Amino acid sequence: VDPTNTLQFGVQGRDNEGFLGPGTADAMLGSLASSVRGGARFGAQVCALAPSVARRTASGQQTNELQEGSVHVNGVELYYTESPGSGSGLPTLVALPGALGTAATDFGPQLRDLGNHLKVVSFDPRGYGRSRPPNRDFPVDFYQRDADDAAGLMEALGYDQYTVMGWSDGAMSAVLLAAAYSSRVERLIIFGGNAFLTNEDIDAFEATRDVAKTWSTRMRETHEPVYGKVGLQTLWSSAVDAWGNIYENFDGKVCVDEARTIECPTLVMHGEKDPICLAEHPQWFCDNIPGASGIPMKVFPEGKHNFHLRYAEEANEAIIDFCTDM
After folding, report:
1. Which parts of the chain fold into alpha helices (H)?
2. Annotated catalytic residue: which of 117, 281, 305, 308?
3. Residue 12's pLDDT band (boundaries 50, 70, 90)?
4. Is 35 known to be catalytic?
5. Hey, which residues does 191 pair with through a beta bridge?
6. What is the C-alpha to C-alpha distance for residues 100 and 175, in angstroms, rounded to an integer?
7. Annotated catalytic, 281?
8. Which pTM does this prediction carry?
């Protein structure tokens, strides 16, 4: 496995993976341990991406294949992938991955299957996957930084207006992006994220701090080829510290105030069996984001944290309906 190639390390998938949300340490570890149980089915989906990927040409010419490349944004090189629909005049969607995630691991079915309806762009956030160096760090504003990076990426690629979609960690950054760049964001889709952290969240994170002792073998094997054993431990410890800092010094607020300013149409989705992001969090978004008013939450009764991968066809239909409903 080439540790720099998200299309290869993505084959193990991210079944039920995600790192923010309330719940006990056991629930979190159970979720982490099951992260590759969907490898056979999702792995085949992500592997199907690889033969179709082509570099975006210097002239910006598009083909019917996935496009990939990197652009300089806010002082770093961001690796990105665009769906076959990119450049065709279709509505545009930018997808923000979750913790430790990449375009390929977190949005494979969306990049592959939505091209006839939407121009889908996703990327490896700075410090993850192919967007290295630099290594990932977690300053106090790292969620806002990811939001700014996503906005900068879309500007660099020539997209002036678009829908923003975020999963798990990416949902928080998606909210911040929609709030800070309201003139660019036409619609917002969020799932698996939360606007605030609780003491339960912090206790759960601390219980998983020691990767070697608390993570399953499969979970470690998913990420160690990418970040290395020492690198993964350092990365995860830094993330746990960052979440603790948010809780201790900012009353646990991640995007509470910003969410209340969002006027664009907002779709909140939720997996009813998500052990990480409990129902109170998507409901909070529905109740507090002005743009979500009157838009029913899309609930997946059998869905867990990764329902957009496990039930990709149904999730994609909801995404298409929301983005193309004029």
Report:
1. 6-9, 25-33, 39-47, 103-113, 142-156, 169-180, 199-207, 211-214, 217-227, 229-249, 256-259, 280-288, 307-310, 312-324
2. 305
3. very low
4. no
5. 167, 269
6. 19
7. no
8. 0.84
